[in-house]
Write a structure and sequence with these properties.
about 110 residues; alpha/beta; about 25% strand; disordered N terminus
Length: about 110
């Protein structure tokens, strides 16, 4: 087993491992990514935002993308906090490096 593998948590409880997140703004609201970062930090101490930016397109709904295929529980929790949905990386958006989850902010929060 690899030493970088996260141990499985008993009884399906959330793990305490840090989730690296990139937030991109898919709206015209300036500063939305920063506002969301603060709200997310207050709601979940295991989330670390590694970068923020702007999406290449506009989005109606907030989308949470599990980039590694190993963070689906965290993605679902974040989607719940942000009233978004878990989905796949949209065509045209760049997969960020060194992140577990990508959040694309949509206008209908």
């Amino acid at each position: 087993a690899s030493s970088s593998a996260e141990p499985a948590s008993p009884r399906g409880e959330p793990t305490s491992s840090i989730v690296r997140v990139v937030i991109i703004n898919g709206t015209k609201t300036v500063g939305f990514a920063t506002t969301t970062e603060k709200a997310l930090a207050a709601a979940d101490k295991n989330v670390t935002v590694v970068s923020k930016g702007n999406a290449t397109a506009s989005y109606d709904k907030t989308l949470v993308v599990d980039l590694t295929g190993k963070s689906n529980q965290a993605a679902a929790q974040i989607a719940g906090i942000l009233k978004g949905e878990v989905g796949k990386l949209p065509t045209g958006e760049v997969k960020p490096k060194d992140a577990d989850i990508l959040i694309i902010l949509g206008s209908s929060l």
